[in-house]
Structures are given as structure tokens and as C-alpha cells.
Design brief:
Blueprint: H1 2-28, H2 35-60, E1 71-75, H3 83-98, H4 102-109, H5 116-121, E2 123-127
Antiparallel strand pairs: 1-2
Helix pairs in contact: 1-2, 2-3
């Protein structure tokens, strides 16, 4: 997760710059952002790493941060996970973090070492073989 923070930060910087330019244009037109606009901006900032993660998992089963550890996300049956399952995985992972990481710690007690998001989405991690 720490490795994947860096691409997410880069994408957030781009999005925040675009948001700032939008606010500057609005202030010149004497428009004031409201609560809805702020909520939409937060939603955008939540979606950006989600799109990055889901696209990476869908493309090759791995994000940049998963590659050094040779981890890959697959469906429970070993096939590539569906787009729907990967989106659900991201949503439930977010909820797991919001409840103080309990959803992540669940892997300690699960026989298959799955977190809440893997249980909900029907996915699992696999470790890839070392290639020389």
C-alpha cells in the first residue's frame, strides 16, 4: 500500500491542480463553491486511486506496489477477477480502513488469509513464482 501511495499522490496532484483552476475561474465570475461541490471533489479524490487500482488489477492483477512482492489479485477460482468484483473490492477495502483496519486484520483469523474486501468480492491474493 505504501508503494501505491506514490502513483496515487501524483494523480491527486493533477486532480487538485484542475480543481484549483476551476475554483479560480469561479471566483473570477463571483461564484461561490457550495457543500455539494466540496462533496463531489472528495468523491473525485476517492475515485482516483480506485480507478488506478481497479485498472491495474484488471490489466494484470497487480498494482505497482504489488509487483516487488510478487502478489496478484485473482478470482477465488484462480481466473482473472471481473471488473465488478474489483470495484466491489475497492469499495469494501475503503470501508475496512474506515473501521480502523479491522477488515484488513480479518486475514489473521480467516483460514484462507482473506481480508473483508477479498471475502466480499470473491477474490484472493496469490504469490507469483520467482522468475530469474
Amino acid at each position: 500500500m505504501v508503494y501505491d501511495l506514490f502513483p496515487a499522490l501524483a494523480l491527486w496532484f493533477v486532480a487538485c491542480y484542475a480543481i484549483e483552476l476551476t475554483h479560480r475561474a469561479q471566483s473570477m465570475a463571483s461564484l461561490h463553491p457550495d457543500v455539494l461541490v466540496g462533496d463531489l471533489e472528495l468523491l473525485l479524490l476517492w475515485l482516483i486511486p480506485g480507478i488506478y487500482a481497479v485498472a491495474s488489477w484488471r490489466r494484470g492483477g497487480q498494482t505497482i506496489g504489488m509487483r516487488p512482492w510478487r502478489l496478484k489479485v485473482v478470482a477465488a477460482d484462480g481466473r482473472p477477477a471481473t471488473l465488478r468484483a474489483l470495484c466491489l473490492r475497492y469499495v469494501v477495502a475503503t470501508l475496512s480502513v474506515f473501521v480502523l483496519g479491522i477488515g484488513m486484520l480479518w486475514a489473521v483469523f480467516d483460514d484462507e488469509r482473506r481480508c473483508w474486501h477479498d471475502v466480499a468480492a470473491g477474490t484472493r491474493f496469490v504469490r507469483l513464482d520467482r522468475t530469474a
